[in-house]
Specification:
Layout lengths: L1 E5 L23 H4 L6 E8 L2 E6 L5 E4 L13 E7 L2 E7 H5 L12 E5 L7 E5 L1 E8 L4 E2 L11 E6 L4 E5 L7 H20 L5
Length: 200
């Protein structure tokens, strides 16, 4: 990924959309969710024909897509599980969470964004490509279009120098019920993984 600085001479107010499904994700305080995003280093990722901004503070790493284990009973948004330090890390389909068209299969250039706050316990988000990291100035933030909130996951728009791009909040990617369901699936996957550990 490349790095650059994005900014704008215009000044905008950062409007925030309602949380997804009208519910506050588990463990998220409403006052925190409504706090305006003030810009900073960000990861630009592509999902389908959409470019998206993720605050870099919410992305711990970017991985190529390795082989993932997917139980046959997994719900559609779960791409699979990745073994990490004897635990199973869930990887979710960004397109499905955001209400975007789902590709037939991950592209050769696809990446996993590792998001420590996803679902409360952390997880990965499959995107078509992580393109670059950029510094987005506070004055480059524009109001969100109420008609295009990406399932309520977007909190603002940012001028990256190539048009306005939605800024996503990791806390909004999953509703409370989805977070609870994912925790159960991840626990089952971790226990199954532990059963295959060979004693030292």
């Amino acid at each position: 990924m490349t790095q650059k600085v994005a900014g704008s001479s215009a000044s905008f107010r950062n409007d925030v959309a309602p949380p997804r499904n009208g519910t506050m994700p588990l463990g998220m305080d409403e006052t925190d969710d409504m706090r305006p995003w003030e810009g900073g280093w960000s990861v630009i990722a592509r999902v389908g024909d959409r470019r998206l901004v993720f605050p870099a503070a919410e992305v711990s790493s970017v991985l190529p897509v390795p082989p993932l284990w997917r139980p046959p009973t997994s719900p559609k948004p779960v791409v699979g599980f990745l073994p990490v330090a004897s635990e199973a890390m869930p990887v979710l389909h960004a397109a499905l969470l955001l209400g975007l068209p789902e590709p037939e299969r991950p592209d050769f250039y696809a990446h996993i964004l590792v998001l420590p706050a996803l679902g409360g316990a952390g997880g990965g988000l499959l995107v078509d490509r992580a393109e670059e990291t950029v510094m987005i100035a506070a004055e480059a933030i524009a109001p969100l279009d109420p008609a295009d909130t990406l399932n309520g996951c977007a909190i603002a728009l940012a001028d990256t120098g190539h048009g306005l791009v939605p800024v996503l909040s990791v806390a909004r990617l999953l509703a409370t019920a989805e977070t609870a369901a994912l925790a159960e699936l991840t626990d089952l996957a971790s226990r199954r993984l532990a059963a295959w550990e060979v004693p030292a």
